[in-house]
Amino acid sequence: MGYDTKTRCIHGDNDGVLFDHPFGAVSTPIYQSATFAHPGVGETSGHNYSRESNPTRSELEAIVSSLEGAADTVATSSGMAAIALFLELFEIGDHLICSEDLYGGSVRLFDTNGKGHGLQFSYVDTSDLRAVEAAIRPSTRAIFVETPSNPTMVVSDLEALSNLARAHGLLLVADNTFLSPYFCNPLRHGADVVIHSGTKFLAGHNDTLAGFLSVKDPDMAQRIRFLYKTTGSCLSPFDSFLVIRGIKTLAVRMERQQENALRIAQWLRLQPKVKRVLYVGLEDHPGREVHERQTTGYGSMISFEVDSSQTAVRLLERVRLIAFAESLGGVESLVTYPLLQTHGDVPAETRERLGITDRFLRLSIGIEDVGDLIRDLEQALQ
């Protein structure tokens, strides 16, 4: 029988638990073993060496595949490791088109390791289909998109981009970190590959690093598995256990975080020192109509611009309940200064054009009482 996403976060696709655990264990065991004995020559228990596969990690990968509707998923040691693994699919001279408003760590990877290995990258507004099409070259192999983008919340039309990619024989790759598979399933809207920083909403507790690469096509999935085994960027058994535990509460966390975020975004718009609020759940967000066609929720990421750099710094230094920290997606609310943190490696002229200035802040809203969060922001803005 087909289960709702809320149920699959806990049980996967099967009746009861996803796998038969020893002794009827309800919680996934941690198989803290580097290697596994062979029953005989030419025989296997199903696992040989944990760089290749591990029972705890395999269960996690199966759960994420179920949530994303993927043929296969590999769990990596971080979100950046997942992106680096994805780049292994390409050859010298290949060209990728990327969202211009992309996580700074992705830009750093593309412009250092990627270019160092002979790949080429163009950054365009992927919400503008004409701009994307104009950037296509004979050597273009993929379109890499974040929607909503990090941190200016630009929404790109996955189905339109998928149609364009198909017409030109390109892969469409979506970083789904901001929404998680609870609110968005890019593979069902035409993407070929989905990437997550599992550190964020999937793990959900700011206590471990993880990444995921989910693939629609079984042949590509086999190729990814070979590269994964070869490069060795696998997630450890204990970290796999932590992410499995986190995903069990993904649905309730995402709903609570979204509820809090909408209240806070509406409150921020009324503050004299706040000049602009970017949240896809606000009625006048320019990408809201497209976003609603391809998702089931708005998420809990808010960016906003204040009246001066002094106000921004004062807020960062005065928040008490909200932590001034990098990352996002956990149960604790965080505020980030993209200029110096997440987007420090993006060229200054690009940051300025996108509005990522010394007045620009990003909030990841947690599950705390929303009144307490608003009071903390209020005292920090005074």
Structural overview:
The protein is α/β, with parallel strands linked by helices and 382 residues long. It has a domain at 251-381: Aspartate Aminotransferase, domain 1, CATH 3.90.1150. The chain has 14 helices and twelve strands. The strands form two sheets. A seven-stranded mixed beta sheet has the order 1-7-6-5-4-2-3, with helices on both faces. Strands 8-9-12-11-10 form a five-stranded mixed beta sheet. Helix 2 packs parallel to helix 9 (237-247) and helix 12 (309-318) crosses helix 14. The chain starts with a helix and ends with a helix.
Task: Provide keyphrases for this structure.
single chain, 382 residues, Aspartate Aminotransferase, domain 1, 5-stranded mixed beta sheet
Low-confidence stretches: none
**Main sheet: strands, sense, barrel:** 7 strands, mixed
Query: CATH class of the domain at 251-381, please?
Result: Alpha Beta
Q: What kind of oligomer do you see?
A: single chain
Strand order within the widest beta sheet? 1-7-6-5-4-2-3
Terminal CA distance: 54 Å
CATH architecture of the domain at 251-381: Alpha-Beta Complex
Radius of gyration computed on alpha carbons:
21 Å
Mean pLDDT: 95
Structural class: alpha/beta
Tell me what portion of residues adopts beta-strand conformation.
15-25%
Q: Give the name of the CATH superfamily of the domain at 251-381.
A: Aspartate Aminotransferase, domain 1
CATH fold category name of the domain at 251-381: Aspartate Aminotransferase, domain 1
Q: What is the string of helix and strand elements?
A: HHEHEHEHEHEHEEHHHEHEHEEHEH
Assign a percent range to the helix content: 25-40%
* DSSP, total strands: 12
